[in-house]
Structure formats: structure tokens, C-alpha cells
Amino acid sequence: MAESRQRPRVTKYADHEVIVVPNRLRKKALTQAAASDPDPVSDAEQMLGELSAQFGSWMDDECRVLEDARQVVHRDGMTDVGRQTLFRAAHDIKGHGTTFGYPLASDVADSLCRMIELAADASRIPLTFVDQCVDAVRAITHEHDHENAEETAAELAKELRTLADELLGIGAKPDEPANVSPPLAPE
Fold first, then answer.
1. Quick count: other Cβ atoms within 10 Å of Cβ 149?
2. For the domain bounded by 55-168, which CATH number is listed?
3. pLDDT tens column, 106-142
């Protein structure tokens, strides 16, 4: 109870005063921390390790969604709904791929996302490019255990990134117009 009666400490200077209020929570927090579970970071790492056995099946699910989106685009064309469905599926793989242990699948999905985002006219995105990206993601996730798979996947991801840049006109020669959408905000 003496703790609750502590008064603020005042330090006076020539032109001002500094008031330091006693921190009664610090002792309570330290007591609670000592009584709680061990390091929460190590607990989270342990849980992630336990979940990692499921990453492959989760990535298979993501690939099925991407394949379904590709089928929608092939059937209906690059409509707003088809484009959004394809983008969402590719974006999910772009975000989850690295966490699930497939960083090169994330890179390929990123190329597809860039194409969908930056193309001036989504209906002019070649379906062969969409097919190449979807097939590459599926191959990277299904063949990752094979010998030289990492090198092959890295080369594939690099080639698809280059192809996306070429199709978008990024890095084009100065006399060639770029096929990129205008910025959202005026410059």
C-alpha cells in the first residue's frame, strides 16, 4: 500500500519543472510476465512448425483456385469478373507462396498480378501469358522436390517477369509507346 501513496517526483530547472509520476504498472507487468507462458515468439514458431506440414495441401488449394480462375477467363474472356477472379487468385498465391515455402511461385504470381494491374486494356492480355503463369505456379508447387527444380523455377520466374515487362512496354525503347495505364493521381 505504500506504493499507492508514492508522490510524483518534481525536478525544478531555471525555466521549467519536470514531473515524473511513479509507474505503478511496471512492477505488476513484470510480475505478470514472469508468471505467464515462456517466450511467446518461440511458442508461435513452434505452432508454425506444426502447421508447416499442411502448407503443401494449402498451396494445392490455392493452385486449384487459380486454375478455376483461368478457366473462367478462357470461357468468358477477360471480363471485369474474370479479371478480378484471376487477380485475386494470383494475389493470394503471391502473398501466401513465400510463407508456405514456395517463394518462386510468389514471383510468378506477382508477374501475373502486375500484368492484370498495369495493362492498359485487360482484354488484350494474351491468354497464353495467363496459361504460362498458371502452369508455372502449378509446376513450381508440384515439382519443388525434384533435382534442379529450384534453378529451373528461378529461370522460369525471371523469364515470365521479363515477358510481362515486354508485354506491358516497361523498359521499351524510347521511340516505342509503353502499354501501361496512366497513373491514378495526376503528376
1. 15
2. 1.20.120
3. 999 999 999 999 998 888 899 999 999 999 999 999 8
